[in-house]
Amino acid sequence: MSADPILEIRDLSIAVGGLPYVSNLSLSVGRGRFHGLLGPNGAGKTTVLRALYRALQPQAGEVLLDGQPQQGFSPAAWSRRVGALVQGGGLLSGLTPADIVEIGLTMRAMTARDRGRATQDALQLVGLADKAEQDAESLSGGELQRCYFAQLLACDPEVYVLDEPTNHLDLHYQLRLLDEVKRRGRTAIVSFHDLGIAARYCDYVHLMCDGALVAEGEPAAVLTRDVLCRYYRVDGVLEGHSLRLEGPVLDDRSAPAPLMHVAE
Fold first, then answer.
1. Is the Cβ–Cβ distance between 219 and 240 less than 8 Å?
2. pLDDT number for residue 262
3. Residue ranges of domains in the chain, CATH in brackets
């Protein structure tokens, strides 16, 4: 597993509705590594990820893939290399899980037979093979999340951009699907609310607050008691892959601190 960057964000600033959501953010994502994007609600995590899969246009800065600016790729070429699992889905009327997975494969140079096989394999991985031809609108929230995960696994891009991938999933599928991404050895940049899950899977984490990067490094080095108090406003400590919480911090000890770069 190489640590050289495949994806780089340089001095990124993004405004939404005239309001600054991300300011002068820079980070690198190592090739073949699992990176976590962490922070409290409103930190700017989803905004950054939306820029990575081209749903938002930055006001300043750039995103590079293998040193090449994002603007130099066509949308189709970018999506073949950088694939995303996003919060919320599209229109489902008249579609089946098999349809949804195959839609993601339309830009791949594959025969119809190979697309069908890839679709079946992906639905099997996420436990939806028996519902492949069911109306997607009848699926539960967790089943829909697994369906969109199947679409991404079938495409198997070089870079997985996952925005809260454990939303709606029970514990079995949280572990099963993230294990599968990890097993493939692909690059991943993933936003998490669950810090225990982040510690389990991430090689490196980037902590955001108010649109800025405030700490980065290995999970155990970043997610200290002081950081949890300051940015998450909880009294807790990370013990291995488990977060032990004493309770909320009720007084105001969450003022921003200088950016911490924690050695790997």
1. no
2. 52
3. 5-261 (3.40.50.300)
